[in-house]
Design goal:
The chain is of the alpha/beta class. Helix content is 43%, strand content 15%. β16 and β17 form a beta hairpin. The longest helix has 38 residues. The relative contact order is 0.08. The structure holds adenosine-5'-diphosphate and magnesium ion.
């Protein structure tokens, strides 16, 4: 494949597995993978300690897969995970890594699903069984021999399993496995209960610990933003409007992501390029040279591809995807603030990555403050500032070369200088929205300050709000309010050019509410009604005191029906 297969291939994994790993977009083993894979391949017992998000699944799944004999259609590896979700995740990971290894069968075994099909899948030749301890014990009670061929046992998230009270189940499972098996234990922490399991059930285990060293990063101004995964590109585009950067490096996890983001940036007119392991060395050097001399302003890179990249112009690092470990976070943001200059680092965090953020804060010994996506007013101010800056040098001298033409045009168009200047401005800015109402109408971004469901149905809510608004205009009678909600009124309505989604966007952006907190929005001709949570209403209304929508003051007030 590419010159980048080196990392995984050098660990002793067979080519089919390396190829599948490359196909998922991983470029290089993470620290825990680097250290664990050779040990597990060698058949040793092992205790691996590393934080969430460090890549532990592949650290055991790849070598175990490597050790499976596909010609034998019987359980050979058993992975225990604390929850159904984690068991499914691990099973899916195995399937992904086995894509180019024919004959591998994986079965996930967990509670809440019928037992029969699970047992049949095990007996029908699954070599890899991923299970929660409770359900697996149920199976053992039906058939105590079902695990008698298992040669490799992995306890994933062992500390979590103990917290969930699986100690006794684990003992039952240990008893049901051949004593000659290999046992590997992964845990974020190693309390005494885990050490005691290890003493009793592991043989001469090797220890792998990924140290989280405290590292200080002083000259860099750091902040994080909560966003949903599918809104990352939109968030980056928004942030770039207001961040005053010279050169910027954006880090993502996969090759595909480098391409996607670089393409989105180019489409918006930024001088951007992707940098990933698929790009030939000489081309990579050209990209870095271009970033140095200003032909490029933004490079979107994976960690591997950015290795050794040292460009003093870089003022900003965007961590668009979470780094694998705190060390690589420190490493990434160290790309800015070079030579004693000020740097700025932004980290996008999806709701399920909150814990990694805490780890980063602990390791760097610094709080990474929460930032908000800039609202329409900030975006507009930034655009006008940029326009002003680009015109300033011309104002000083363009009149000499173009003044006469201007006079001639006002005469022949029979217009005021202001009318002509406005036309030229519109042309020069390529129709970019430069008044508040138009900026507000641009896709409003939904900030995610409160947790909500993992998959978002972005854009779904405004549509729904508009739909219900149409219905309400016909019906007229006020709809009953949901528990804990009150109705608020603004004097802005359809005749002010307001749509439900403008109101929703403004309240979300300025009020810092979770989307779910906002109920129906009804836009009438001369006013609108919005359902808001009663709890904290005063505070919310104060926050929204100066909010403008479509250029007009929102002035939201509680509305009493009687
Ligand atoms: P942990 O179990 O340590 O919490 P996971 O194994 O769930 O971490 O991995 C976290 C994320 O990182 C997953 O999305 C996984 O696909 C990704 N990942 C793991 N190893 C690599 C790698 N070497 N390169 C790129 N992404 C990786
Ligand atoms: Mg894990």
């Amino acid at each position: 494949m590419t010159q980048e297969t080196g990392g995984f291939a050098a660990l002793g994994l067979n080519p089919n597995i390396v190829a599948a790993v490359m196909a998922t977009g991983y470029e290089e083993p993470s620290a825990i993978q680097q250290q664990s894979i050779p040990i597990i391949l060698d058949g040793h017992d092992m205790i691996g300690q590393a934080q969430t998000g460090t890549g532990k699944t592949a650290a055991f799944a790849l070598p175990i897969l490597n050790r499976i004999d596909v010609s034998k259609r019987e359980p050979q590896a058993l992975i225990l995970a604390p929850t159904r979700e984690l068991a499914l995740q691990v099973a899916t990971a195995f399937e992904t890594y086995a894509k180019q290894t024919p004959g591998v069968n994986v079965v996930a075994v967990y509670g809440g699903a019928p037992m029969g099909p699970q047992l049949r899948a095990i007996r029908n030749g699954a070599q890899i069984v991923v299970a929660t301890p409770g359900r697996l014990c149920d199976h053992l009670r039906r058939d105590e021999k079902v695990l008698s061929t298992v040669q490799h046992l992995v306890l994933d998230e062992a500390d979590e399993m103990l917290k969930l009270g699986f100690m006794d189940d684990l003992e039952v499972i240990f008893e049901a496995l051949p004593p000659t098996r290999q046992t590997v234990l992964f845990s974020a922490t190693l309390p005494s209960s885990i050490r005691s399991i290890a003493e009793r059930h592991l043989r001469d285990p090797k220890h792998v610990k990924i140290q989280s060293k405290t590292q200080t990063v002083t000259a860099i101004d750091q902040a994080h933003l909560m966003v949903h995964a599918d809104q990352k590109i939109a968030a980056v585009l928004r942030l770039l409007e207001v961040e005053e950067f010279d050169a910027l490096i954006a880090f993502v996890r996969t090759k595909q992501a480098t391409l996607d983001l670089a393409a989105a940036l180019e489409a918006k007119g930024y001088k951007a390029a992707a940098l990933n392991g698929d790009i030939a060395q000489n081309q990579r050097e050209r990209v870095i040279e271009s970033l140095k001399d200003g032909r490029l302003d933004i490079v979107v890179a994976t960690d591997v591809a950015a290795r050794g990249l040292d460009v003093p112009r870089i003022t900003h690092v965007f961590n668009v995807d979470m780094p694998y470990d705190p060390e690589s976070y420190v490493h990434r943001i160290g790309r800015t603030g070079r030579a004693g200059r000020e740097g700025r680092a932004l980290l996008l965090v999806t709701p399920r990555e909150r814990r990694m953020l805490q780890v980063i804060e602990r390791v760097t010994g610094q709080k990474v403050a929460e930032a908000r996506l800039p609202g329409p007013q900030a975006v507009l101010d930034a655009r006008i500032k940029k326009l002003t800056a680009s015109l300033a040098p011309l104002v000083a001298e363009a009149e000499a070369s173009h003044g006469e033409l201007f006079d001639r045009l006002t005469a022949s168009l029979e217009c005021t200088p202001r009318a002509l200047a406005s036309a030229l401005l519109r042309k020069a800015t390529n129709g970019q929205p430069l008044d508040l109402a138009s900026v507000e109408r641009e896709q409003p971004l939904v900030p995610t300050n409160a947790p909500r469901g993992e998959r978002t149905e972005r854009g779904d809510r405004p549509e729904r709000a508009e739909r219900s608004d149409r219905g309400d205009r016909e019906r007229r009678a006020p709809m009953p309010l949901a528990e804990g909600r009150v109705r608020c009124r603004t004097a802005l309505g359809a005749r002010d050019g307001i749509a439900a989604k403008n109101l929703l966007g403004a309240i979300l952006n300025e009020g810092g509410l979770a989307r779910d907190a906002i109920g129906r929005i009804q836009v009438r001709d001369s006013f609108s009604l919005v359902e808001l949570p009663e709890d904290g209403l005063e505070r919310l209304l104060t926050k929204l005191k100066d909010t403008r929508v479509a250029g007009k003051q929102l002035k939201l007030r509680r509305y009493r029906e009687d």
